[in-house]
Amino acid sequence: MAAARVFLALISGSFLILMLYLDLTAPIPPTIIFTVLAALVFVGSLFECHRYKRLHRDKPDLEWQETSERFIDAETGKLVTVYYHQKSGKRRYVAAASDEADAGKA
Q1: Is residue 57 part of a domain?
Q2: Residue 80 three-state SS
Q3: How many helices (H) and strands (E) does the chain have?
Q4: I need a surface site. Which of 28, 31, 39, 64 has the fewest CB within 10 A?
Q5: What is the phi/psi pair of residue 71, to 5°?
Q6: Residue 58 domain-assigned?
Q7: How many domains does the chain have?
Q8: Is the pLDDT of residue 52 over 50?
Q9: 3-state secondary structure at position 29
């Protein structure tokens, strides 16, 4: 997954540079729409990885409430439990221990 993000950022960044060069050198920049699209893809690929939260190994303190939400993380294959902090509204994703994950797959 990370390799795909890097590849997308490199391709869209290269395309963005090419389009900016063509926009600046052409008498009437017909490529402005492609420049905008390349910029959107490039910026999106840079910030997409910050959208998803990292997995924590340890359970949070008692202020966090365990939710009933569980899922298998696509990158690690681990069972993930979601915790909720009522005061801040934040969510925390905790990877289950390997024995819990095996029980969740059964």
Answers
A1: no
A2: strand
A3: 3, 3
A4: 28
A5: -160, 165
A6: no
A7: 2
A8: yes
A9: coil
Q: How far is CA 7 from CA 4, 13, 66, 70, in A?
A: 5, 10, 37, 30
Cα–Cα distance between 80 and 84 in angstroms, integer? 13
Here the tokens at position 13 are 């960044």
77: left (phi over 0), alpha (psi -120 to 50) or beta: left
User: Domain range for residue 32?
Assistant: 2-51
Same domain, residue pair 9 and 42: yes
Q: Which two tokens stand for residue 33?
A: 């729409």
Distance separating alpha carbons of residues 43 and 23, to the nearest angstrom: 19
Measure the N-to-C terminal CA separation of the chain; round to a whole number of Å: 26
Residue 68 lies in a domain: yes
Model's pTM, two decimal places?
A: 0.48
| 68 lies in the same domain as 46 | no
Burial (CB count within 10 angstroms: exposed 0-12, middle 13-18, buried 19+), residue 6: exposed
Rounded average pLDDT over 40-63: 78
